[in-house]
Amino acid sequence: MEKNDHGHGQGWSERQIGVYHRFGGNVKAVMVLLHANTATKAHSRLQQVFSDGQYQQQSSTSPLLLHALILSSYLDNWRPNLQQLGAWCLSKENQFLTVGLKHPSLCFQELQELRDLESRLLLASGILHSSLAVVQGIESCGRSLMTAKSALNPVGSVWGVDATDPTSELRFLGVLGLKCTGYFQSVDLIHRRVNVVIGLLSDGLSQQSQKTANNIADSSFALTQKSVNDSYIVKVVTVITVVYLPMQGVATFFGMNLTGLSDESDKLRFAHNWWLFLATALPLTLVTLGVLWIAWRLEKKRKSKQQVSTTV
């Protein structure tokens, strides 16, 4: 983990360092260090070690010193990084615990940021797990070399003629391993808290969607109710028209033959066969109403069949 000056994001970059180290009692030690940048903290610390005569002699006789130096150059950067991520996660958790459903912070953009943080925590977990494996591997290699030194030659052995005791380096590597374990546990804790915040935000977005769906359903019900009322009014007007038109047609057919003004008074006078109007108009009206009823029944059956076919 390394601090960057990109001006965007969280301000940290995950770096992968490649190290090739060949060491032996009768072979010249060779180390190749691969890094993404030219001027790095590990490079400057290595230059300082090789410029100091005492450290240079120790580094030539102890293969663990350089590895411990490289690992310690970047491992402690996890502390401020995780503190920053934990503080950001805590602020989001406090925000979504007290926010209302209509608050603008309940949006998909916040969920995207949390998902991005979740993916970065997964990457950090993998890096720390690998770093812990590297530290334990180097520590195991150092202990094996100590065993070989004691078994072969307490004086010279594979460490060289003026070999230094690597016990301090092994203890330091043990401390680095404990730090890796602690940072790994911190990442796991932050990851779980991020999952809690994601759950809160997802529940809030679901409640928003459900509320919107309920509003749409209420509006649709009101519109349907209004349509039903309008349809009822249309049916009433249709029935009145169906009753009125046959009688109007019969009245027009008979004309003024059934009614007229009395010669003796100004009152309306009906003919003796006025019942012909009723005998003609009533059956015609009933037939018209029957045709209308049959048409409505057929329309209702057609709509029912359409609903059944749509459901299937």
Short description, anyone?
72% of the residues lie in helices and 6% in strands.
What does this structure look like?
With 312 residues, the protein is mainly α. It has two domains: 2-219; 255-311, no CATH class. Helices cover 72% and strands 6% of the residues. The protein has helices spanning 41-51, 53-61, 63-75, 78-98, 108-152, 167-254, 275-311; strands at 2-3, 12-13, 18-22, 30-34, 259-261, 268-270. It has a two-stranded antiparallel ribbon. A two-stranded antiparallel sheet has the order 3-4. A hairpin with an 8-residue loop joins strand 1 (2-3) and strand 2 (12-13). The longest helix is centred in the C-terminal third of the chain and has 88 residues, at 167-254. The chain is rod-shaped. The two termini are 58 Å apart.
